[in-house]
Design brief:
The chain is built from no helices and eleven strands. By secondary structure, it is mostly beta strands. 31% of the residues are buried. The radius of gyration is 13 Å and the shape is globular. The strands form two sheets. Strands 2, 4, 5, 6, 9, 10 and 11 form a seven-stranded mixed β-sheet that branches. Strands 1-3-8-7 form a four-stranded antiparallel β-sheet, with no helix packed on it. It starts with a strand and ends with a strand. It has strands spanning 3-8, 10-13, 18-25, 34-39, 46-52, 56-59, 67-71, 78-82, 91-97, 111-112, 117-121.
Length: 122
Amino acid sequence: QVRLVESGGGSVPAGGSLRRACTASGYTFRTYCAGWFRQAPGKERERVATINSYSGKGYADFVKGRFAISLDSAQNPLSLQMNSLDPADTAMYSCAATYALGWCPTAAFSLWGQGPQVTVSA
């Protein structure tokens, strides 16, 4: 059974940084498309960043230049470095994975982490 376990996150003041990491059991991030999503209270879930060996990295416009997604080949964690955080970034951030090769359609994300909260104070 595939399990995605997240670490990192928490609370920071505006302008601060946080790093989220996600490890997988029963799954290899490097083989398929994987990424990070977020959902703020009362809002729809948003796609934040994705990565795969075929199409590379992709970012939502609202995080470009501030967030970076990466894979650590040694330990298989999927990471999200979040810099220049703004209160508008406050949300539950979840790692997610697919069995998709090539492109990363949102509908293909079927494996999810537990998504601890990230809170950015003004």
